[in-house]
Design goal:
Blueprint (H helix, E strand, L loop, with lengths): L1 H44 L4 E2 L5 H7 L5 H14 L16 H7 L3 E2 L2
Parallel strand pairs: 1-2
Length: 112
Amino acid sequence: MNNYHTMTFKNILLIGLCFAVFLFFFGSQLSHADEAVKENSSLIASTGKININEADANLIAQTLKGVGIKKAQAIVEYRQTYGDFANIHELAEVRGIGSATLEKNAHLLAVD
């Protein structure tokens, strides 16, 4: 009976240790994710639109209809290569972003 209690205590201790290690490694990543969400929310909050010259790929993909992470990354890469967008219609220059996608999302876009 004593071995059973020792084994149970060891199992509980091991589970607790694993949980602590999990929180140590992934807890900081969760707080960084929260900070990114707050920062992205501030990009949208003032106008109700996202600034495509400042938004990261995750925000673009989450906000725009018909734009996944690959297209959003292409938008960010285009902006990094050619500079800020002068107007929202310039998004049509990005590979994978057509006029239909631009029309669906025009009310959500800003370049200020």
